[in-house]
Amino acid sequence: MADFRWEIVELTPAQVDRGKTRDGRLRLSARPRDVELARSVADVRAALEVWRAMRDEAADAGDVLQTAEAVPVLRWALRHPVGSEERTRAEAVVDRVPEELVRALFRNPGVSGREGG
Fold first, then answer.
1. How far apart are CA 72 and CA 2, in angstroms?
2. CA dihedral 80, 15, 72, 102 (to 10 degrees)
3. With contact defined as beta carbons under 8 Å apart, do 52 and 86 qualify?
4. CA gap 76, 62 in Å, rounded
């Protein structure tokens, strides 16, 4: 009888650490939009802080558009469900950005928000 070797292969989706809950548990996300953002920027927390300031209108959209994170952060926001705060604000920003940035955003077909992430 042939000698078979079984190897355990761990198949887990990529996950992003989204901080901790109030009771200290980790908040992880395997949403494609979150994983793509984490892979696209050097510092996710810094990118999202800039985005939150713009979303809450504490900062001008121009601040975000001048950063290297502009395309990945807007892509991330556009992948939220239709009607969400992130998606609505990102759509308003996209209406005012230069055309070359809009082209860069839509080079990736996943920004439509249709996928579940």
1. 51
2. -40
3. no
4. 17
74: nearest Cα among 89, 57, 58, 63? 89
d(CA 79, CA 29): 14
Cβ atoms of 77 and 46 closer than 8 Å = no
Lookup: tokens for 40: 């696209």
Bridge partners of 20?
26
pLDDT tens string 90-113: 898 888 877 887 887 777 544 444
Backbone angles phi, psi at 40, to 5 degrees: -100, -15
Encoded amino acid at 25, one letter = R
Whole-angstrom distance, CA of residue 111 vs CA of residue 76:
8
CA angle 56, 61, 64 (to 5 degrees): 100
Q: What pLDDT, in 10s, does the model give residues 50-82?
A: 888 777 776 666 766 777 888 888 899 999 999
What is the token pair recorded at 113? 């928000």
